[in-house]
Prior knowledge:
Layout: E1 13-17, H1 22-33, E2 37-42, H2 45-54, E3 62-66, H3 72-86, E4 91-94, H4 110-137, E5 141-146, H5 159-178, E6 184-191, H6 197-203, H7 206-215, H8 224-235, E7 246-249
Parallel strand pairs: 1-2, 1-4, 2-3, 4-5, 5-6, 6-7
Amino acid sequence: MTPGAARSFEGKVAVVTGGAAGIGLATCRRLATAGASVVIADIDDEAGRAVADELGDQPGGVSFHRADVSAETDVAELFAHIRGDHGRLDIAINNAGTPGTFGPIAELSYDDWKRTLDVNLGGVFLCMKAEIPLILESGGGSIVNLSSGAGTRGFALLPAYVASKHGVIGLTRSAALEHATNGLRINAVCPGMIRTAMLEEFSGSEDALDRMGRAAPMGRLGVPDEIAEAVTWLCSESASYVTGLALAVDGGVVAG
């Protein structure tokens, strides 16, 4: 059986931030092919529209709405659009993020620090603030926040990114406890080194990517679809007793 083939999200409405590329794109594909109506939110208009066109023949329908998750007005407009067009929300994937600036703390500008935190943590907060009441009005559902392996351990020279991803896990757990009894499950996924355009740009070379892959106990980089599988499992009824989890999908890094 193809992974995730038994899952059905028919009749469900889902939003995926950062859905135009990488892990977000892989997640949009899985949700759409499983029957969900998917709203892609991203700052990349061209890529977002291309994904909506690619998946447009799926039965639930796929649409694109431009949104910068760090901008409160953009987030408000996104969820007003979802409420107006769909009247409900069942699944929210808060995936939009930025790697931030690489370098020592003493040389990091406060503007760069704030920008990374505003997108990676502030964006999750703003989206959850809008998602929670809409999902509860719809009878419950699931939120999955994308953290990182950097959300569970320290990494030198990535202070803002590491701090933001630790914050995502803390926010996820706090919200999960708030809503544990009212039908809203809230979890996080912590990817390891996943071969995306963002990682390719950050690494700077194929040799660096190879070294990153060899550093994982499984000896390779992950691919976006492996993260999307974990995300969609958490959204499904198969995970009905799972909330507050920070699920590592990292090729074994968490084990050692």
